[in-house]
Amino acid sequence: MADHIKVRNAAGVWTVRAGGAVLGESRAALELTEGDYPPVIYFPREDIAMAFLDKTDKSTHCPHKGDATYYSVVTKSTTLENAVWSYEAPLDSVSRIEGHLAFYTGDGITVEEI
């Protein structure tokens, strides 16, 4: 694993909400810290209501994690474009985040420990 990236179990119960809807709640979330960036919570895909997510054409590449795919969050009142990302086949050094989703917070999305 790149020395500046750490993946560990996120203590407690975590929730993600968008547009007034609970998208997911998990006791099995992961916390990824990378350098000086704020920690990012990754939710197991099975703990997220995937019916609210639409896969988009966007993709990005991180030299430390691999290729990310993106999803928009679709709620009754809005669509939050490319608000979710996932590393479908992450590099071996961060393989624990495979099958997990992370969310950009703000603009109607909250991720918090409950």
From TrEMBL:
Pfam entry (one): NTP_transf_9
Domain DUF427: 15-105
Gene3D superfamilies noted in UniProt: Domain of unknown function (DUF427)
Matching PANTHER family: BLR5716 PROTEIN, DUF427 DOMAIN PROTEIN (AFU_ORTHOLOGUE AFUA_3G02220)
Protein name (database record): DUF427 domain-containing protein
Species this protein is from: Ascidiaceihabitans donghaensis
Phylogenetic classification of the source organism: Bacteria, Pseudomonadati, Pseudomonadota, Alphaproteobacteria, Rhodobacterales
